[in-house]
Every structure is written in C-alpha cells, then in structure tokens.
Specification:
Blueprint (H helix, E strand, L loop, with lengths): L39 E2 L7 E10 L16 E20 L1 H8 L5 H23 L16 E4 L15 H18 L8 E6 L1 H10 L1 E2 L12 E2 H13 L2 E6 L12 E6 L28 E2 L1 E2 L5 E6 L5 E10 L2 E2 L5 E6 L3
Parallel strand pairs: 1-11, 4-15, 5-8
Antiparallel strand pairs: 2-3, 3-13, 5-9, 6-7, 9-15, 10-14, 12-13
Length: 342
C-alpha cells in the first residue's frame, strides 16, 4: 500500500478548493443480518476455532389408567458445532517524503492509509459474512446448510424479472416469504426483527418504482404505497414485526443460475411461550440460551495497528484482525431468494 501523490501544474492566480472529492464505495448493510448487527469481539488472538454446544431432546410419556412398571424416559442429546477463524492482514508503508508529497494534495497520509486499510478489512469481513472463506465447508450465510432457497418465478402477467413484476404481487410474495420463515422457526405470534438484504437495484425497484395500485392496498387516510412500504406495514400489523431493507451489490449474480440473491433473515428469535401454565416448549427456557441465529466473531472491535520502523526513516504499519466467517447457527431463520433482474 502506497500513497501516489504526483506533482501538478496550476495557473496563477487561482483559488484551490480546500475540500477533497472522495471516492465513495457502497456502505454495505450486510452486517445488519447479524444478531448483534456487528461481529462479536469474543475471540482470543490465537483462537483457531469457535465451538458452540447444541442441546436437543426426545421425550416419551406413557398414558395408562393404571400404574405401569415399564416406563419410557426423556432423552437430552447434546452435540457440538464449530467454525474456523482466519487472520486478516494488510500493510501500509511510507516515509516522510511520501507524507510531504501527500500534504501538497491536502491529504494526511497516515490517516488516509489507516482508513484505507480499515475499509479493505471491512470489505473482506463482508465477503466472509456472506460467502465465507471456504464455502465448501458451509461458511458464509449464502452457503449455510439447511437454509431455505426459493426462486422467483413469473407473476400473473408472465413477467419473470423483478424489474417488471407487478408491484402488489411482488409485495405479497415477500410477505409470503416472511410468513414461511416465521412458520419454520415457530415464531408465528412473536414479533421479530426481519432484514431483507439485496442489491441496490432490487431495493430501488420495490421502494421507488414499485407503486402498488389502490385496488391492491390502501393506506389509512387514502393513498397508495410502494411494495417495500406495503411489506413493512402489513408485517407490522400482522405480527408486530420490524422489517428493514439493506443493500449490498455483491449479491448481484449470486443467486441460482446467475440471478440476484435476496436474503431474508431473522437475526434473533423469541422463545415461544404459551399463554397458560402448561407450556409445551418449557424445555427451551433452560439457561443459558442464545436466541441468535447468525453470528460472526472477531478478536477485537477494530483492526490492531502494529507500527514498525524501517531503514531510512520509513515506517510500516500492519493492520490485522482475526474473525470467523458468517456462521448460521439456526439455518431455518434464513431464506435466500434467487430473482432475475429482467
């Protein structure tokens, strides 16, 4: 990593704008799919694996009018799951002459290098969250074993691309995905935080272009709504759910057959409770119990910076962080929709 600050020629007299015109990159919303909305800083710097304990049960009860001497019993079955960790590293090298040259461009080179390194590591973490370092091992949310995969077909008019799908039908399709996810996770009746992660062009379509007709949906006080607004409103009415939409353009082409991938996830679940003293889910109240469905662990909240002097007055700074891939510990809470753009 270096700072490239060439000389430049200007016409005098002149006025130089003090502000920099910065390159913008897409601020990914991928991390909203995590239970904590950020990687959890739990690892030691040399931890190579993360393990988690699962507990399942099988219960058998006999019913007779008289006492039996041969009775069945409940079985508690523990098991272990694991995921690997990986060390991310990048470097910045410069000397005082590089700093002086960058200063002519109104750039603080040490801070610019620091932010560039952090952005590179953040982008790598995003890739690890969604796709994993070793996808064949089931790493990354899109490679999670046991998750639900759905393909967007055609609407009633024969349109197969979401850019031309009927907006009301597309909104209903997304609501059906929410209902199916809540059913598979036993969360009907439980208010959840739900996240749709999709390319910008999908979010743009359902937020700005996809206006639902008045015959399909009408807001209180009259007026129509977009497909995204319809999904948010109906999910709030029906189940008290908080639906949000986040963007990540790396999902373009990541669906089945080169289509776009749209991720629907419930990052946290609620422990289902019965409205009675007799609870058919009472075993789930055993503590400690995590309600998270998706995790990513790292060894610190921000990359460690290790500066080291070099000969001739230069300096090298190592930026490093250890992290896991995206870890879907409850894959039933994830649905991946493959949808063609056009």
């Amino acid at each position: 990593m270096s700072g490239f600050a060439p000389s430049y020629v200007t016409v005098n007299p002149n006025f130089m704008m003090p502000d920099l015109i910065m390159q913008y990159s897409l601020a990914s919303g991928a991390f909203t799919t995590l239970a904590t909305e950020n990687p959890m800083a739990r690892l030691g710097e040399s931890d190579l694996y993360v393990y988690a304990k699962k507990v399942q049960l099988t219960s058998q009860v006999q019913a007779n009018q008289s006492t039996s001497n041969n009775l069945p019993s409940a079985s508690v079955v523990p098991s272990m799951i694991s995921t690997a960790t990986y060390r991310l590293q990048t470097r910045a090298q410069y000397d005082g002459f590089d700093e002086a040259a960058a200063g002519h461009w109104n750039i603080a080179l040490p801070e610019a290098m620091r932010l560039a390194a952090r952005q590179g590591i953040a982008q790598q973490l995003r890739n690890a969250l969604l796709y994993g370092y070793n996808p064949s091992n089931g790493e990354g949310l899109l490679n999670a074993s046991g998750s639900t995969h759905v393909t967007l077909g055609a609407d009633s008019n024969g349109n197969v691309g979401y850019s031309t799908w009927d907006s009301g039908q597309l909104a209903q399709f997304l609501l059906n995905l929410i209902g199916s996810l809540k059913t598979s996770t036993l969360q009907i009746g439980q208010p959840l935080r739900l996240v749709f992660l999709a390319p910008q062009r999908f979010i743009s379509q359902i937020s700005y272009s996809g206006v639902v007709s008045l015959t399909q949906f009408q807001r209180v006080g009259a007026g129509v709504e977009t497909a995204a607004g319809l999904v948010e409103t109906v999910a709030k009415w029906a189940g008290g759910d908080d639906v949000s939409f986040a963007v990540d353009d790396t999902l373009i082409g990541q669906g089945a057959g080169g289509t776009d991938a749209i991720v629907l996830i419930a990052p946290e679940l609620k422990v289902p409770k019965a409205n009675a003293s007799i609870n058919t889910n009472v075993f789930a109240t055993l503590s400690p119990n995590t309600t998270a469905t998706s995790l990513m662990l790292c060894d610190m909240a921000a990359p460690r910076e290790i500066p080291t002097p070099l000969p001739d007055g230069a300096i090298t700074t190592l930026y490093t962080l250890r992290s896991t891939s995206g870890w879907m510990i409850r894959p039933e809470a994830l649905t991946v929709l493959s949808a063609a753009y056009a």
